[in-house]
Amino acid sequence: MSRPEKPKGRWGDLRRRMISAVIMLSVGGIEVWLGGVPFALLVMALTGLMLWELARMTAPSRPVANVVVGLAASAVLMGVLALVFQEDMMVALAGLALAPAAGLIGARRDRRIFFTYGIALMAAGAGLVMLREEGGSVAILWLILVVVASDVLGYFAGRSFGGPKFWPAVSPNKTWSGTVAGWAGAAIVGLGFSIAAGAGWGLIILSPVIALAGQLGDIVESWIKRRSGVKDSSSLIPGHGGVLDRFDALTGAVLAVLVLGMLGDLPLPELGN
Predict the structure, then answer these.
(1) What is the pLDDT of residues 43-79, one digit of tens each?
(2) Which positions are tagged coiled coil (predicted)?
């Protein structure tokens, strides 16, 4: 007679999350260090998987068409990046809409949401590669650590202290304690890079702003999942759900860097390539 499983409690998923996180950080760290084509290929693969997951959530009965959308996203992003580095920006920007537009062919729920969020994912993918090429590996490392610090401290603070919810109607698990802890962690990361990488002191202020954008990226994806009636975007990453579940915050952070960068110069770390 088998024993009934004990309830996992608030820390029940921690071990799987940590193992998956270590693997992802190891692979990501190597790719960031390599840069160039290897990093671009990784970003293209992740973007394709995220578009596939978004397509699954909005049209679960069309598995073949959804795979096509994911493959198209990777292929289109390759072309967009080629145009970017040839400085043909207008055509490149128009190209970002091709894969999401292809996903609108046939039946699909929340078509406007799919198209808009799909373009955001494509833009974030292109922006991440551009940031690596123009800002070097240290700029990417700062961005990733801001998102990771915000997520990790937010997770532990939220689980430990609880308290009022940040936006219960959209993301019922996020608390103000976790949100503020995430901002504090991002500020500490900014301070570290200001000292060690020669970035401006403004990075201490910029880092929590980028962390907030990452948190909002997480909330947007949570809202889409609630509309679709799913807990995770997929089950590709043990303990984390899908690729979109893991990189939704990074998507928001990259988009924030792109927008703020268009408004003025950012105090990003530039040490090393």
Answers:
(1) 999 999 999 999 999 999 999 999 999 999 999 998 8
(2) none
